[in-house]
Amino acid sequence: MKKIVVLTGAGISAESGIKTFRDADGLWEGHDIMEVASPQGFTKNPKLVLDFYNQRRKQLLTVQPNEAHKALTSLETDFNVHIITQNVDDLHERAGSSNVLHLHGELLKVRSTVNENDIVPWKKDVNLGDLCSNGHQLRPHIVWFGEQVPLLDTAVAITQTADILLIIGTSMQVYPAAGLIDFIKLGTPIYFVDPKPSLNASQYEHLTIIKDTAAKGVPKLVADLIKTKA
Ligand code: APR
Questions:
Q1: pLDDT tens digits, one per residue of 99-134
Q2: Is position 69 annotated as part of the catalytic site?
Q3: How far is the CA of 199 from the centre of ligand 1 (A)?
C-alpha cells in the first residue's frame, strides 16, 4: 500500500465553523494571537488565556467534522494514511481517521505548567486553581508561539517516507510545520487544496494546486486518488 501523508491546517475545519487564524486581520476570535497563544501572554494574564481556550473548547464540542475530514477517512481502504495536523481540534478523530498526529497540541487535553509530559484528557473549563496531581496549575495542552514542537521529529520521519503528500487548508506561514514539505523524497507528488493557496505550482516539482475549499476539493481529490491508486 502506498503511504499518503496529509498535512492539515485551520482551513480544513473552517467549514465546520471554526475560524482560521490569518483570515481576519491578525485577530483570532477578537484577540491578538500573541496575547492568547504565547507563554508571555499566559504569564501576563493567565485568566484571559484560560478563558480564551475554555471558549474554544466549548465551541469545539458544538461543531462537527465536515466532508473533507470524512473523505480523508475513506482513503484508508486503499492507502496507508498518516495525518499530521496543525489543528488542536479533534475533528479528524471524530470523522474516523486512525493515525492523527497533533503538531500543535490538543484542545481536549490539559497539562501541568511544570511538567509538559503530565498530560490529561479534559473537556470542561480550566480555571486558575485547577491543579495537576503534583499540585501545579494546569494549562491548555497547546504548543504556543516560541515553544518547542515535541512531535516534530516524529512528523519529519513520517513525511520522509510519504509516497504522496496532501496539504489542506494551511497558510504555510508557521514553522516548523510549514517546513515539513521540504522533507519529502524527490519526485513525491504533492496536492495542495486551499481557496487562497500560498504556494504556486512553479515552486515545487510535482505540485498540483487545487484552488477550492476543503469540503469541496478534498472529496474530489480523494475520489481521484482512489480511482487511480496513483
Ligand atoms: N477550505 C480550505 N482552506 C481554507 C478554507 C476552506 N474552507 N478557508 C480558509 N482556508 C485556508 C486559508 O486560505 C489559509 O491558507 O486556510 C488557511 C488558514 O491559514 P491559517 O489561518 O494561517 O491557519 P494555519 O496555517 O493552520 O496556521 C498554522 O498558526 O496560529 C498558529 O498554531 C496555530 O496551528 C496554527 C498555525
A1: 999 999 999 999 999 999 999 999 999 999 999 999
A2: no
A3: 13
